[in-house]
Specification:
single chain; mainly alpha; 5 helices; elongated
Length: 142
């Protein structure tokens, strides 16, 4: 099954097991714990359930953040190398990480000019993505 060509309107990804199974299940346990805490003789069990649910949610959030941080570092290195290959110069230190991450979707033909424009006009990530004419998909981001 071929992947759909990526563009600005469809580049965001949902991870079904993470977003639609893990989070709802953890939230359900949290709600159940709160309900136990507020009903009669089960306040200790409820508090323990709330604590467990909170920790499960925290682990999920941290795992996601750590993975994205590692990907962000890899993207910064890849795009810095791509810029150097295309120009023979290092990428500007004035570009924010978010701008560099957005620039990864630009084709080689527009990458350098768009990087300069992003720096000069202080473009936001969304503005950079919207300015891309020839979208270069990133099918490996999670």
């Amino acid at each position: 099954m071929a992947k759909e060509n990526q563009n600005f309107s469809n580049h965001r990804q949902w991870q079904p097991l993470f977003h639609f199974v893990f989070y709802p299940a953890a939230l359900l346990v949290l709600v159940a714990g709160i309900r136990l805490m507020t009903t009669g003789n089960h306040s200790f069990e409820g508090a323990l359930t709330v604590l467990i649910a909170f920790n499960i949610l925290l682990i999920g959030v941290l795992a996601r953040m750590f993975g994205l941080k590692a990907q962000d570092r890899a993207i910064r290195a890849e795009e810095s190398l791509r810029y150097f290959i295309l120009t023979g110069k290092p990428i500007s230190k004035n570009l924010r990480l978010g701008q560099i991450i957005a620039l990864r979707f630009a084709s080689d033909e527009e990458f350098v000019d768009l990087a300069a424009r992003a720096e000069n006009e202080n473009l936001k990530s969304k503005e950079i993505k919207q300015a891309i004419k020839n979208w270069r998909g990133d099918y490996h981001r999670v």
